[in-house]
Amino acid sequence: MPPLCLQRVPFAVLRSAVCLLAVVLSSVSLAADNPFANSQTPPPPNYKGPLFQLSYAYPKSVPPPPMPWRATLGGQPISMDTASAYTNALRDAVAADMQALVANYASWNAAKRGWYNQPWLSAIREPIHGMFRATNTDGSLFNDPALKLKFVNNFAAVYYNSTAAVTLGRFWGPTAQTPTLTTAAAQFAEGSLIVKLAFTEVTAADWPVMDGSPSWSIFSKWMDPNSGAPAGTNTMFNVQLMQIDVIVKDTQAAPKTGWVFTTLVYDNRVQGSFWDRMIPLGAMWGNDPDVNSPVQPGTRAPLKETWINSASPAYSQATLGWGGRLSGPNDQAVQAAGEYIDPGTGKPGTVPVANSSCMSCHSPAQWQFQSFLLPGHVNNSGYFMATPGSPEWFRWFQDRPGTQPMDAGSIALDYDMMFAFKALPAWAQSTQKPLDNLRLFMRPSDMLSQKKQAAPVMERNYNGLPFNADKPKQP
């Protein structure tokens, strides 16, 4: 059995529960004492290339940014009619910097270009590009016989523009040791941009849709695409660009939530440069809380707050979220059979379900983090999905402003999952805050004792934190 187990096993087949490592947080180093460290992983011996440099000289203030994408709206909120033009204008606004980052990394200087990173994540960032492990998606969900691998394993990197970085500096302070844990401190200004670059371990030889996609070499634990188990040691391997998310704080466009989420995906059918091939999958500015959609993947419901580009490649549309709400192929808004406990039977689900979206996944961004990213809860037996269409389910599909937490008593973090799901848990662990700060989406009846509180595998799969080598519990 691979020591860092993520393999799939009969019956305990949940990706949320496979291996079900009870990772004891008090015994796992999640962050170095230095919150501004680049990576805890040294580069490979004899490596002479560029290394990731954390950009953390956060500005205290910046002038109001130009927001050229607003010109597409005619002074009105975004709509199904204007979403395409808005998404393309947003894409144009980041084009020069993202092309420089992806295609000319040896010369990339984030700070000079006005881009910044979250602190406290050196434990999960690999040393070359600062990427962290993201999701690994069951290949069957793409419905593509050309895909030769069982799992599509992914890495990601996240950057904030200078407007958004003012919030990072206000929230973390000069040392990042004593963050200002208030809703007000976590709010982003108009024009804040956050960009996530998502790369996959799948090569063009494994899946033709990746043909010609830009490639980065990273130094991390490669994950076996057929067993789902990570290698025991770090190694150099290539990953290819699949997806770029660009999200913007724009209350004119999205007065209910304050944010517009857009996703670009790689399309090798398009002629031109790699950037020409990064085309819109869609945009989302709300959760359509009035639409009770079916959960079958690929089923579209009439939506008013998600626009999907019908010309985007088939692989990217195969994993859209609940009822066709926006979610990219990197984002795991569809759970494969066996990756969840069916609320009707109490047993692992037997069919895939679409149960998330970009905004529903970000809507629990709060501290303390009391609700999981997906509707329902997790414990050390797996991910227990909420009943589709129930009031509990719809807690994830509301149009809340970023000042309103999902759970009463928590601090709202303005839809920012890097705060809520990665940096703050690492800060709390490193600074030896009480473990009840790491409640990790368990119901109180499911919590372990403070000394042995563990992070379920589903949580660790989503947030990229390291696994230990314990043998899995079997249900």
Q: Classify the secondary structure makeup into a structural class.
A: alpha+beta
Distance between the termini: 17 Å
Provide the domain count. Answer: 1
Instruction: Give the overall shape, derived from the CA principal axes.
Output: globular
H/E series, N to C? EHHEEEHEEEEEEHEEHEEEHEHEH
Which ranges are low-confidence, i.e. pLDDT below 50, for 5 or more consecutive residues?
1-31, 434-475
What's the rounded overall pLDDT mean?
A: 86
Number of strands: 17
Largest sheet: 9 strands, antiparallel
Compute the CA-based radius of gyration.
20 Å
The tally of helices reads 8
**Share of β-strand residues:** 15-25%
Helical residue percent?
Answer: 10-25%
What this model shows, in words?
The chain is built from 8 helices and 17 strands. By secondary structure, the protein is of the alpha+beta class. The protein has one domain. The strands form 5 sheets. Strands 2, 3, 4, 5, 6, 7, 8, 9 and 10 form a 9-stranded antiparallel beta sheet that branches. A two-stranded antiparallel sheet has the order 1-17. A two-stranded antiparallel sheet has the order 11-12. Strand 14 (376-379) and strand 15 (382-385) form a beta hairpin.
Quick description:
This protein has helices spanning 83-103, 110-113, 162-172, 314-317, 358-362, 391-394, 417-430, 457-463, and strands at residues 23-24, 115-116, 132-138, 151-161, 193-200, 215-220, 235-249, 259-266, 278-284, 306-308, 334-335, 353-354, 366-367, 376-379, 382-385, 411-412, 454-455.
